[in-house]
Specification:
The N and C termini lie far apart (30 Å). The chain has a 5-stranded mixed β-sheet with strand order 3-2-1-4-5. Helix 1 links the parallel strand 4 and strand 5. It is globular. It has a single domain, classed as Nucleotidyltransferase, domain 5, CATH 3.30.420. It is α/β, with parallel strands linked by helices.
Length: 121
């Protein structure tokens, strides 16, 4: 299972997924084995919030899920249209959250949190 994590610092899971430009992509087997596959460090114009094309780099990674600490409804909808499940978590450690998602454990802290920023989507 291929899972991406929003991580602006490449160490912890970060929020505001639509504006995120850095992602860690993992391969997980559902038995607890989690292996980092690659890192994306995209320019600002390639955040999902800004980019409107159907060929966004995230969409070509064969992802089954994305984990973040916060995501707006537009981001969730765009990824769901690509059959990528969005999981919102309070967990900081990417490997812990990826292992949970891969093994079918819930990581969400309730419903996906809406963006609380002060701009229009």
């Amino acid at each position: 299972m291929r899972i991406a994590v929003t991580s602006q610092n490449f160490r912890t899971i970060t929020g505001h997924a639509g504006k995120a430009r850095r992602f860690i992509v993992y391969e997980a087997d559902g038995l607890g084995t989690v292996k980092e596959q690659e890192r994306l460090d995209l320019p600002a114009e390639l955040s999902v919030h800004e980019y409107r094309g159907a060929d966004h780099p995230l969409f070509g990674l064969n992802l089954q899920a994305l984990i973040t600490q916060s995501a707006g409804p537009g981001f969730i909808q765009r990824l769901n249209q690509r059959n990528i499940a969005v999981h919102v978590t309070g967990e900081d450690d990417p490997t812990v959250a990826v292992a949970q998602v891969a093994s079918g454990q819930p990581v969400s802290i309730g419903e996906p949190s809406a963006c609380t920023c002060h701009h229009k989507h």
